[in-house]
Amino acid sequence: MTHHHGQAGLLPWLAEAGADGVEIRRELLPEGFDDFAGLGRACVEHGLGVVYSAADALWQNDAASHGTVTRLAEAKALGAIAIKFSLGHYEQGGAAAWASLTRCLHEAALPCVMVENDQTQDGGTLEPLGAFLTDAERAACPLSMTFDIGNWCWTGEDALQAAHRLGRHVRYVHCKGTLTRRGRLSACVPDDATLADWQALMATFHNGVARAIEYPLQDADPIALTRRQLQRLATL
Q1: Which stretches of the chain drop beneath a pLDDT of 70?
Q2: Cβ neighbours around 187 below 10 Å, total
Q3: Which domains, and CATH codes, for the chain?
Q4: What is the pLDDT of residue 92?
């Protein structure tokens, strides 16, 4: 969601609708934005926890990306409870690369650092994500996963199969209905049948896993619509 006051302008709307958190998206912040502490305080004032979407690849050229430390610092300034990255291109990481990333994440001291399945073959398919999270576990690197239900459609993967393989790593779920129109996929409000199908996915995750709306909320009364959609997701 966007707003003519930017993401901060959505905070009263979300709070009134009954949300308990907000995802701040790096790519939607104004160019040159640096008041992360101020934006974080505004979220706290509205009673909203923060997940920071870095929109960067975590892994490049057999090691953690150079911008990782910067994004972690921004998340810290926001007071974020979690940060999520795209995976990037991962084949295999050496012991030194994993040790460096592990040290970096421990120094950042954020409660939760995640990779999300995106809409690319590198970062949104089961094999590289599974390999990455398994290797992270072996390296004792504190990484978990954001599971975007809809994004598996973009990469041609089966969401339930992915959930069975990756579910134990998942700490945050992007709930996204999808539709195909003129051969193009787009996000949409999930219908009741889709919501019922998601129950099988949710059964593979930890109890009480955080979930977020990742689909358009357009209505004459957007607050009421948001409240209804939050109540629907709470039943999962």
Answers
A1: 1-5
A2: 18
A3: 7-234 (3.20.20.150)
A4: 87
